[in-house]
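Protocol step 4 of 6: structure prediction from sequence.
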Amino acid sequence: MKVYFMRHGQTNYNVLGLCNDNPEDPVALTELGQSQAGKAAEQLRNTRLDRIIVSELPRTRETATIVNRYHNAPVVVHPGINDIRSGFNNRPVREYQAAIAHDPLHARVNGGESLLDHKARVLGFLDWLRTQPDRSVLVIAHEETMRVFAARFRNLTDEEMQVLAFGNCEILEHEL
């Protein structure tokens, strides 16, 4: 199966530097985020997509709607690729990073999950994805989730994984 992994377009929370892991929060693509998704749509225009899989967070579905204008593929929501539950929802990312700095891989704060907890959840999603009949899938997710995907397919250590960075609407392509 050919899988395209993509981070969502820029959001109002990205601009404000805020954490968001609650699907009920009013987080939406900015004008730039919509433009990024439009460019990704052009990049994937001639790519076969049997299905698009998004997280429960609306920014991934909003990105999918723009990308899907050339495909009309079914869009499926899967909670396994939700953003990391930071325990800092609606709070500055810098506060979250400071709170986990003592042990970035294992620290769980304010009822959130650690990076390794998140990794286990995302790897469970990949196990599920392997059982699907599709030949080509687009997965639209979040930067932390993209780190797990990239580390898995590049055979990186957990320490190497945590320093990876992905731009909005950046696309990775892998065989699964």
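Step 5 (inspection) to follow. Helices lie at 12-16, 31-43, 58-67, 93-100, 115-130, 143-154, 158-161.
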